[in-house]
Each structure stands twice: as C-alpha cells, then as structure tokens.
Amino acid sequence: MIKKVIKQKIPQLDALRGLAAILVMFYHYDINYLPSFLSDFFLIRQGWIFVDFFFVLSGFVIAYNYSFQFNKITLFKFIKLRFIRIYPLLFFSVIVFAFFIIIMFNFNAENLMYFNTKESIINGMLEPLLLVNSTPFLGISQGINDPTWSISAEFISYFVFAILALLNIKSRNYIALILVFLSYFFLYGFLNNGLYTTGDYGFIRGIGGFNLGVLVFVLYDYFKTKKHQIYAWTFAILIIICLYFIDMNNDNFTLLFPFVFSFFIFYIASSKDSLIISFLLTKPLQYLGKISFSIYLNHK
User: Fold this and answer.
1) CA distances to 16, 128, 285, 298 from 291, in Å
2) In which band, very low, low, confident or very high, does the pLDDT at 27 lie, cut at 50, 70 and 90?
3) To 10 degrees, what angle do helices 202-222 and 50-65 make?
4) Which of 101, 127, 126 is nearest to 116 (CA)?
C-alpha cells in the first residue's frame, strides 16, 4: 500500500474549499431564482474564478501529502487512490444528470440547448465518465454536468504530478515551474478565453493551477518559521478587491488570480492563531469543507 508522509492536517484549508464551493454554486445558480442582492453581489457574480482556487489548493494538498519520490508501484497506487476518491461521486452525478436530461428530452426537448439529440446525450455522458471532457483531443463537449470538466482537468493533473514524482525532487520542482509558465502562456497567448477556458482546453488551466499549488507547497515546506498574520489578511483583502474589479472583457487581469490565491493559501496554511483561522475552524465551516466536493459536483 502506498505510504503517505505523516503530516498534521491543515483543517483551515478544508473550510476554504467549502466556501469556494458555495461561491461557485451561487454563480451557476439561475439568477431568476436568486434575490437580486445575491445575484448582483460581486463575490457571487465572479464566483467562477474559484475553480482556479480549487486547482491551486488541490496541487498544494497533494504535494503536502505525497512529497516523496515515486516508483512505478507507488505511481499506480497513487492514481488508484485518487480515482477511488473522486470517481464514485462523479459517476453518480453524471447518471443523475443524464436521467433528468433524458426525461426532458422525451417531454420538453425544445428547452434543451445543448443535449437536444440522442448522440449529444450519449457524448455528454461518456466524456465525463471517461475523464476526457476537458480536452478537445478526446472529447467534444463539456459534459452533461458542466462542472465535471474540472474533474477531468484535475485527474489529468494527477497524472502529470505522478509522472513528475518519478523524478528527483529538484528536477520535478523546476519542471512544475515550467509547466505553470507554459500553461498560462498558452491560455493567454494563444487562446482568447484565458481563464474562461473550460471544456475545450480546460486541462491546460488545471495543469497550470495545480502545479502552481505544488510550488506553493515547496515554499511552504522550505520556510518553516511562523508567518506574520497580516499577510493572510492582506491577500484575503486583495482577492476581494480584484474580484470587484474583474472585467469580463479584460482576460489579462484574471491571470493575477491563481497567483493571489497561491499566496493566500501559503499564509493560511502557515497560520496558527488568528481571527481568520478561528473562523475557518468553526464546526459549520469544517462540515462545509467535508461536503464541498458534493456541493461542487451536484449543484448545477
């Protein structure tokens, strides 16, 4: 069985994952069913960006728990464990969504924008189940349940991490840095959508954010001393300010977010006692963190 490095959990990060899932959920919610004070609130209106928070946080957490060199056996075990962790809920959500889409197809097909043919429904089911709906090479749709594209991107990032973990520590860190640069260079230099990329080249977005999280762990592991609390607050406020000034027509500005998220995660993970940490350690937020994956995958 694969051995994990024994480290103390960082429960405040689980709470952050839960809060991010709530913001993404409200972002996707039909504004016709939301009161205007929620649908117009800038944190919710820009909630889509927290998908990148998930990618960065995931890279940090995986590197935190598996910061040793892999061999072929541990590589296979790692992929198996990650598959068991995410696939059952993914399978459940796709089947449930497909069930309702099929019902609508038979009784009210004119209201279906994307899955209005039998072929599109079959593709929409198979591609997320095969974890290929974040790449244009193996899939042609975002999936029957929109958020599943990011699960595909995440799983591809697991493969990249596992392959890099076969290398020695220093080499894989340098390669992770190169992957971050190349990923964002591709998204902003060759695609028009930048971080708005989802089901077409979303795996590139996932690889960039995930490896950025890996590099955050490298810094976290190197600087062992306690960080000053003011930095956590500073980056939290910076995230809020940046969200307020997002312009959907200015993709270049969104490039800031994965890096701001990275520094925020770095200082939150390093913090022990502060008002913000006490808030994140409350029971409701800890519970929210435990069910965050379910909220994210089944809300749309």
Assistant:
1) 12, 21, 10, 11
2) confident
3) 50
4) 101
- Closest Cα to residue 4, out of 82, 90, 86, 57? 82
Cα(first)–Cα(last) distance of the chain, in Å?
A: 36
- Helical residues (DSSP H) of 1-117, grouped into ranges: 11-28, 36-39, 42-45, 50-65, 72-107
Q: How far apart are CA 95 and CA 297, in angstroms?
A: 12
Count how many Cα atoms sit within 13 Å of the Cα of residue 78 in the half-sphere of its side chain. Answer: 28
pLDDT single digits (tens) 244-254 = 777 554 567 78
How many helices (H) and strands (E) would you count in the chain?
Answer: 15, 0
Angle between helices 283-290 and 11-28 (to 10 degrees): 70
Q: HSE-up of 148 (CA within 13 Å, CB side)? A: 30
d(CA 269, CA 227): 10
Residue type, 50: F
Residues 177-228: tens digit of each pLDDT: 999 999 999 998 888 788 888 888 999 999 999 999 999 998 888 776 555 6
Residue the block writes with tokens 């952050």: 16
Structure tokens at 143: 């999936």
Calpha distance 98→198 (Å, rounded) = 20
- pLDDT classification of 4: cutoffs 50, 70, 90: very low
